[in-house]
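#struct-help
A.M.: can someone run this one for me? Single chain, 414 residues.
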Amino acid sequence: MDFDDTPEEATFRAECRRWLAANAELKARPDEVFGSSLDAGARVQAAREWQGRKAAAGFGAITWPQAMGGRGGTPIQEVIFREEEGRYRVPTHVFAVSLGMVIPSVAAHASPEVLARHIGPALHGRELWCQLLSEPGAGSDLGMVRTKAERCTDGPEGQSGWRLNGQKVWTTLAQYADFGLVLARTDPKVPKYEGLTSFFINMRAPGVEVRPIKQSSGEAEFNEVFFNDVFVPDAQRVGAVGSGWKVTLTGLMSERLSIGGTLPSELVRMTYRLMCDQHMGGAPAIADGRMRERLADLYLQHHGLWLQQCRGLTALGKGQAPGPELSVAKIVGARALQDFAYLAIDLKGARGVLAGDDAGDGWEQVERLWHGAASMRIAGGTDEIVKNNVGERVLGLPPEPRSDKGVAFDQLPR
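D.P.: on it. Structure tokens below:
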């Protein structure tokens, strides 16, 4: 592994720094969170505007081909820009699903007419897309999707198409999204992965109901989405009938290849400062050997994940796909963030229950991690599912027994 920028990468990094310095403000602190005083809607609007500025300058979707409005750059260039962008007070992550997962699926499988209409607005932040996959009974196993799409001929002005009925859950930013990519069951008479089809819908279409899910933090990033006889023209089908699982895998693969930092770079330093500032038994916590051991564990996790990221970037730099061993990063990273938040709150003692600025500068990040890290161990596949993948695909262990192989979906136990 080579940890240094190549001459070409160093030139690109300098270009990123020049543009960011001219278009954004540096963070006052490395752990500063953008938009603390803004409500969620205002943060999304700020993200739309920032995405538009990036796209106009060629940084909106660095790895996309130029024909789609991207830069035609490398994954490493995308990571370099994200590393530099992280130093500035700008909105991030709002378009992670829209541009990192959904649009790659649409681009790979939708018609040229759909691409011509939607790719540009999505790239420039004028349209935000959400991904409608998980359901109450289909989370880690998306093959169990029950949302139905049935053919119909009674659409507006006699159009033929599909009627969509069902429910999705944990849909990120659905309340602000303009469009959504839906995985639905079109044939229950075949095995579960073979009877799925993908469609895109207007999130303001009649019959679409979005209900935000209030989280413990007071925010509502996730949503339930209900479809009540939603008409979808056949022109909004993405891919062939029955190829929905293939479309979904395209998005999931794009998510896996969206490699960036796995842990905030300041996490270890922040933990060290907390241990120096907080006292245990009349002495700084850092003087306690047990605390130093926990700090060392966090450092090893942080450094190990960084090396894992470098391995993935090295593969990408050679034109290869990162291996399945990168799944380990999700297991270790989510648990490390959760452990850090618990430790930080414990070190504060009684003041650990205070919220936001009441607990001191930089506490908002701790608060966000405490609320959000546990969900990271569920999103994208629970720890148990990911461990199974690592065991089977990396360690070569026998696969989990499957009783549903080759069985029609409507014959599976509910």
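A.M.: thanks! The longest strand covers residues 223-233.
D.P.: also worth noting: The chain has three domains: 7-94, 129-248, 259-393.
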